[in-house]
Amino acid sequence: MTESTFEKPVTVIIDALSYLSEVLKNGLKKDLQKHQKPCDDCKGTGLEITNQIYGMSDDPDKSKLFPYDNQYIISCRHCHSGVVNLCEFCNEKLSRFNDCDCPDALHEKDIQRAAREQELWDKAIKLESSDDIAKKMGMYQSDDYPYNDGYFASFDEFIEAWEDSHEPDDPKPIYVWGTRSISLSLNADDILDRESEDLHEDALDNIEGKDELQKFLDEWCSKQKWTTTYYGENNYAIRIPWDN
Ligand SMILES: [Zn+2]
Ligand SMILES: [Zn+2]
After folding, report:
1. Residues 6+ apart with CB under 8 A from 237
2. Which 3 state secondary structure label does DSSP give 211?
3. DSSP letter string, 134-166
4. How confident is the model at residue 225 (pLDDT cuts 50, 70, 90)?
């Protein structure tokens, strides 16, 4: 492209004020709730100006990469629609994404977290550690167990770890969470389906001895003991056998 065909952008100034003074002539009505105030940054309008700068590759003036402007109005990035929420404890402005981290707010969060957890404990089915369902789980989970993300296989281990890090008269937890587990399993039908995709159309129907293959797969999978994967869940609470 030659210099003569380059057309420099035409600068226009948008008369934003006359538009805004017309639509805003009655101001903006806001029904503020307790712990809310108009945003200081946008004076409660919810607006701010941004600038999308740009350049043109055929611009003969190479002195600046992005010499041109496109200013426009966007939502204020410091508030929600002109209003900021205040912490109900310290009255400080809350950021748009984070809760306040003042001591009282943190304390309140702790209380709510504890209440949610208590609700889970209350709802859970309670089992003794000697119960068959509990024994079959093979693994248990508790935030009071300091290793292995709280997963442990034996209550002796759990009690030993707890006693190592607590004083004898510290209040003891009563329950830990149960787990569910899944192990490697292979399905003969799925494998044959997949592996016969490129074979002739009756190939799948002509396969014999599927049951034999499934039996072999089951036996083989049962030897892969180290694939068993445990998930903590909140259905069962297992009583810790402190007295045994
Ligand atoms: Zn604002
Ligand atoms: Zn606060």
Report:
1. 121, 124, 125, 126, 127, 175, 176, 177, 178
2. helix
3. HHHH--EE-TTS-SGGGEES-HHHHHHHHHHTS
4. confident
For residues 37 and 78, what is the distance between their CA atoms, to the nearest angstrom? Answer: 13
**Ligand 2 mean position, distance from CA 37 (Å):** 15
Model pTM greater than 0.85?
Answer: no
The residue whose two tokens read 């209040």 is 171
Question: 73 forms bridges with which residues in the sheet?
Answer: 49
Ligand 1 centroid–CA 48 distance in Å is 8
Measured between alpha carbons, how far is 174 from 189 in angstroms, rounded to an integer? Answer: 46
| Ion ligand 1: residues, Cβ under 5 Å | 39, 41-42, 76, 78-79
> Are 236 and 125 within 8 A, CB to CB?
yes
What was the pLDDT predicted at 3? Answer: 57
In the predicted model, what is the mean pLDDT of the chain? 92
CA distance 176 to 54: 60
- Amino acid at site 63: S
Strand, coil or helix: 222: helix
The CA R_g of the chain, rounded to the nearest whole Å, is: 33
Point out the ligand nearest to the CA of residue 101.
2
Separation of alpha carbons 214 and 191, rounded Å: 10
